[in-house]
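COMPLEX REQUEST
Ligand: 2-acetamido-2-deoxy-beta-D-glucopyranose
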Amino acid sequence: MGFEMRVCAWIAMTILVIYLSPCLCLEETNGGICNLYEGSWVYDKTYPLYDSSTCPHIRGEYDCLKYGRVDKEYLKYRWQPSNCNLTRFDGKSFLTKFKGKQIMFVGDSVSLNQWQSLICLLHSSVPQATVIQQGGDPIKNYTFQDYEVSISVFHTTYLVDIEVEKIGRVLKLDSIKNGNLWKNMDVLVFNTWLWWYRRGPKQPWDYIQIGDKIVKDMDRMEAFRTGLTTWANWVDNEVDTNKTKVLFQGISPMHYNGTQWQEPGVTNCAKETTPINGSSSLLGLPPASYVLQSVLQNVTKSVQLFNITALSELRKDGHPSSHNIFHGMDCTHWCVGGVPDTWNEILYASIVN
Ligand SMILES: *[C@@H]1O[C@H](CO)[C@@H](O)[C@H](O)[C@H]1NC(C)=O
Ligand SMILES: *[C@@H]1O[C@H](CO)[C@@H](O)[C@H](O)[C@H]1NC(C)=O
Ligand SMILES: *[C@@H]1O[C@H](CO)[C@@H](O)[C@H](O)[C@H]1NC(C)=O
Ligand SMILES: *[C@@H]1O[C@H](CO)[C@@H](O)[C@H](O)[C@H]1NC(C)=O
Ligand SMILES: *[C@@H]1O[C@H](CO)[C@@H](O)[C@H](O)[C@H]1NC(C)=O
Ligand SMILES: *[C@@H]1O[C@H](CO)[C@@H](O)[C@H](O)[C@H]1NC(C)=O
Ligand SMILES: *[C@@H]1O[C@H](CO)[C@@H](O)[C@H](O)[C@H]1NC(C)=O
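STATUS: Structure written out below.
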């Protein structure tokens, strides 16, 4: 290998290391590096950032106040990184910065959760702005016309495809056919996890296919890793990351096991009204997080882990529980307003820097 090649390889490695570095190196403060994901929740009486009753069309799954949640303290926590400050979300400056741009969330209902929160945040900043809504499946699109900013969500449970064939519904772990609808966006925020362990009537496929091999089932974590790897290869082969900023959302944690917050025996989040005290680094991460991290490490293009797992783990109080349109216990999704507003504050901080 010639000198030039070696220099090239060195530069490539350096770039890779910078891109994959888990922290977002913003301003250094207190001698520490600004990692937006390391910190704690602090009570802030100036929160929430908006009144959810003024946000049009919050889905019944997430509209906790409308469906009877009476404790409101969960709306009053602000995320405080340990070594720096997040700027308060400012919808006008968001829209101005992203003028002419398209932002898309791609994934399951957790993506929809975050999209909905972002729409509420922006709508509350510019309530008079002209918006165009294009609803539907799989793409819902919300355009702030005066700013030419469109925020859309593409619903896909696994990112990889499910196709209906003679034998039934086949989950194709090595195929992403929708990629062409995603790759021209300016910002892409991916997510998938919720559905990988679904079984029984809720499982939306009958067979799994990898290459020529068709199986009835397989180790689900392995399936997740394989599907993610297909996604990773798709990014490497198809996405121009000079144009499109690509983020992958960390696993969104659920709260069905009180052992996580020193209340063994508790099996849901129904009685939770405050976050878990302490710092995001105290609880262990779910196993799927490590699979995601290892796949992201193999992507050669620039992809950012949007690492909301640990900070959300502290928010046992952030879920709808039974305060949703169907009154079913839900400790998986998040109330809007609520925790996803913080995700969007962090998203904003991480894509403008
Ligand atoms: C994500 O953030 C948590 C909490 O700060 C940290 O423990 C974990 O290592 C981070 N993951 C990566 C890949 O940086
Ligand atoms: C963060 O905000 C606090 C309170 O306003 C302030 O005292 C502190 O200096 C700020 N830190 C940084 C790094 O800006
Ligand atoms: C969303 O709507 C705007 C305005 O009609 C359009 O320009 C944009 O391409 C749409 N985005 C998607 C992802 O459909
Ligand atoms: C991205 O930009 C870099 C530096 O400007 C350039 O070397 C590289 O070829 C670009 N990649 C693509 C896919 O255009
Ligand atoms: C809750 O988590 C603990 C510790 O990880 C585990 O031992 C226990 O089996 C879990 N409980 C349930 C009901 O899954
Ligand atoms: C959590 O912190 C709050 C405020 O510092 C305190 O009032 C509360 O007692 C703490 N709860 C636990 C379980 O440590
Ligand atoms: C990452 O790439 C290495 C080297 O090609 C491979 O051994 C490893 O299995 C890959 N990891 C994942 C999670 O795909």
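REMARKS: The mean pLDDT is 91. The longest strand covers residues 149-155.
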